[in-house]
Amino acid sequence: DTASETKPFQAEVAELLNLMVHSVYSETDIFLRELISNASDALDKLRYESIAKPELMEKGGEPSIRIIPKKAPDTLTIVDNGIGMDRQELIDNLGTIAKSGTKSFISKLAESKDSAGLIGQFGVGFYAAFMVADKITVTSRRAGSDDVWTWTSAGGAGFEIGRASDEDAARVERGTEIVLHLKPDASKYLEDWQIERIVTEYSDNIQFPILLVPEEGEPRQINSASALWQRSKSELSEDDYKQAYKQIAGAFDEPAMTLHYRAEGRQSYAVLLFAPSTKPFDLFEPERKGKIKLYVRRVFITSEAEMLPPYLRFLRGVIDSEDLPLNLSREMLQKNPQLAQIRSAVTGKVIGELESLADKKPEDFAKIWDAFGPVLKEGLYEDFERREKLLSLARFTTTAGEKRSLKQYVEAMKENQTEIYYLVGDSLERLKSNPKLESAAARGIEVLLLTDPVDAFWTSAQLDFGGKPLKSLSQGDVNFDLIPKLDQDQDKDGSDDTKADEATVIAVIKDALGDRVSDVKASQRLTSSASCLVAGGMGPDRELEKMLARANK
Ligand code: ADP
Ligand code: MG
């Protein structure tokens, strides 16, 4: 069975490779970061699996990542002695993309100038190597296995897979060797200083030693290989944090918030979390999954532990526990009470940090709110316990201005005003011309103008803020009786004459509309428009109804 087989790439991969191979992307450097990050993941997996099976570590040496440049022919080789891949894993992992959102990613990439940012976010890391290589050979041995496989591809439609030659098999004792046959214009990646520059910039915090093996001279370690979150705050500069953020999150922006602390007591753990300053493209994927990495005593366990609630899924970073068992099973990830306690404590800390940021650095908080406000609002109906805090964090566009907090709203409330008014709709322009605002405007009452899709949901929960109920102007009765109009002369309703007229008009309208409406009422909502449709007091919000109708189309 030494003959090798040719297999086609999944259609999305072929499309992606086509973009990569013919790339005009300027940020080709990131291919190395992606391959190093895969090597580091593979070493993490080995460390984790060897807890139950120490024999996996027997052959293959101390964990490391080696980078080997060679000229004529120009090849750059990246070697790790991590978990490795068997035949099926090579086929699955390097021939398909299983992630959700692949299609939207590829179409964005095809039109994007910010390819590096997108590639980093999506983590199609391996394929990024085709930006610099016209042929790639991967030789891999799964830890503990006697079989070694070679995968080869020149991009295009497919790849070849077969048994490794005896010579290759002898060299790869454990893990994966990736040989990049560099394109002519990528030969700069053979320069030691270029390799060092990229590693320092993107991969300095990788926890395993990265060794540069020059054509001449001795191998040397070119990263600092520390678990940055374990170090004390006082040793770390803002630049250290920025760098760590970029590396941990695969991001290209700057963090808008950094939270680094160590919890001691009933449980000990280190936390290093970042809020990005820009929106990732997959923020609204239906899975709503977070990416926080869970470590136990510096061993990476999983990024699937959902350490924060879905409405904080935009945060990136690491939680490293001292007390949890290393062999956490999938089941335990959900049921473990220690984990639940860490989740809740860290969530509280994050909210606290957002509060103090809103207080002390409003511009930084505004960045977070602009990018992730609609996500944070999901917490308003999901996190009952922290609803009040989240409501105070929320910023709104209102008839009085932008980025208004409810605290500001309440301070600006009119005499005798006891409720917080809002309107939900799909655009600001349409809301602003909504006749339902007229009567509020005549009284100088501020109204929240809610245009995020999520607004229809959290407002349906009948919330109040500091004892003031939130009330939709498009639902049920709105009573402005006790709040005087700004211009008193206009205030003629309520006189006996108008009351009598009202009754006649209403009777005529009811007659004309019949069963199509449940009631017709004189209202104080309007001043210059003649009529508007509202939902009954107990019924669903009228704007919510419209939105749901659109969503169900
Ligand atoms: P991601 O790292 O986000 O999963 P990549 O395209 O970078 O996406 O890698 C795809 C998959 O290929 C990885 O998830 C991993 O299973 C496998 N893989 C890539 N490089 C290695 C490696 N050096 N050792 C073991 N597995 C690897
Ligand atoms: Mg990767």
* General form: elongated
Q: Walk across the major sheet and give the strand order.
A: 1-6-5-4-7-3-2-8-9
User: Which residues form runs of ≥5 with pLDDT under 50?
Assistant: none
Report Rg: 30 Å
Cα-to-Cα separation, first versus last residue: 54 Å
Which structural category do the helix and sheet elements fall into? alpha+beta
How many helices does DSSP assign? 19
**Strands, count:** 20
The largest sheet is: 9 strands, mixed
Bin the helical content: 25-40%
Characterization of the model:
This protein has 553 residues and is an alpha+beta fold. The strands form 4 sheets. It has a 9-stranded mixed beta sheet. Strands 10-11-14-12-13 form a 5-stranded mixed beta sheet, sandwiched between helices. The chain is built from 19 helices and 20 strands. Helix 4 runs antiparallel to helix 5 (115-122). The longest helix has 24 residues, at 337-360. The model has no long low-confidence stretch (mean pLDDT 88). The protein binds adenosine-5'-diphosphate (ADP) and magnesium ion. Adenosine-5'-diphosphate binds at residues 34, 38-39, 41-42, 80, 82-85, 93-94, 123-127, 176.
